[in-house]
Target: MSF1-domain-containing protein
Amino acid sequence: MKIFQSTTHYNYDWEHVSTANWQKYSPWNEKTPHVIAVDTLSRHVDPASGVLRTERLITCEQNCPKWLTAILGGDSKSQVYECSYVDPKSKTLTLCSHNMTYADLLSVRETVVYTPSAHNPESNTQFTQTAKITAFCGGWQKIKNKIEQFTVDRFVENAAKGREGFEMVLERAREVFAQERERMEMSQRA
Model:
């Protein structure tokens, strides 16, 4: 098993980030053209804790080597299951996801946590990302290591694009929120 970890900060408060998260795969994000569908499977709020739990299925068009799909079958579409928890009391947004496509050959389990930054909780949000990558190749340790390292390297590239794209979403959300606030203020004055 190989592990990828990354921590960064966004210059937006937690409320802004946790709200904009639902637009992460929208047209506002030019870095996610590979995401072709996001289906919400379930969503509910726990009445005791106030935690919003959402399950989604994310379908992607992957740039998979043709020789691999020829050997394993299937096509270039892959699916990821995501379960998220928004806890407004502790101001924590946690997303847990894992691949469903080729899961018997490669397991990618990702956890993302958004919390107010310890240094500036009023206007910054900390983003922590961890991925555990495990290839299942029987006793072929050398092949297993190469597959896991290739996947980690690809994960590093995609994570950088993902953070860059989410910055676009956050900026666009700021504009939309400002326009909505202005519209509400104008209607209250009228």
